[in-house]
Amino acid sequence: MVFVLAFLFAVWLGSVIEWVVHKHFMHSIRFMRTPHDRHAVMHHSERRAPGKFFAKEDELKDYHLFETSFMPFLWLMHTPLFLGVYWKLGVAAGLGVAAGTLFYVLAYETLHWHIHCPEEFRFRHQAWFRFLIEHHRRHHNRSNINYNVVFPIADLMFGTLSYRDVPPEPEHEAVLL
Ligand SMILES: [Zn+2]
Ligand SMILES: [Zn+2]
Fold this sequence. Notes:
Elements: H1 2-24, H2 34-46, H3 71-77, H4 79-89, H5 91-116, H6 127-141, H7 153-158
Helix pairs in contact: 1-5, 4-5
The structure holds zinc ion (ZN) (2 copies).
């Protein structure tokens, strides 16, 4: 039970971290340049919506799983959190938080890949996955909304959830500071 609660807490935390990292690191040069260049410049221009959002597997050869993402390192950076929870609340809670955040990172890597390249994905016809595609497609159309990829609870909390269709942004979008 403690494990399940810790796991759910970690999924919620994962959503918040994903939102913060995506908005403030991958779409801003305030803290670091590389994630912004790899994501806001490269990924967003290669996979613009509408038009270039979907890709064939071989077109994604420049975007190998894990290679262009720093999410796995981000997970390792949270080791003190897992140890802290373990120390304060016990081994089940510590494992729950570690497993929940690991699940979130793996889900991010897998889902973001398949959202752009859904042809071979076994869940491609399921409603939850169609919803995530739509959610992320709108982010590639307007990069200041829908920062979550896996679980949009943080978009809901921070008011960036949007399903309005708008004309696409100019090709060279301004850096969001
Ligand atoms: Zn983005
Ligand atoms: Zn994307």
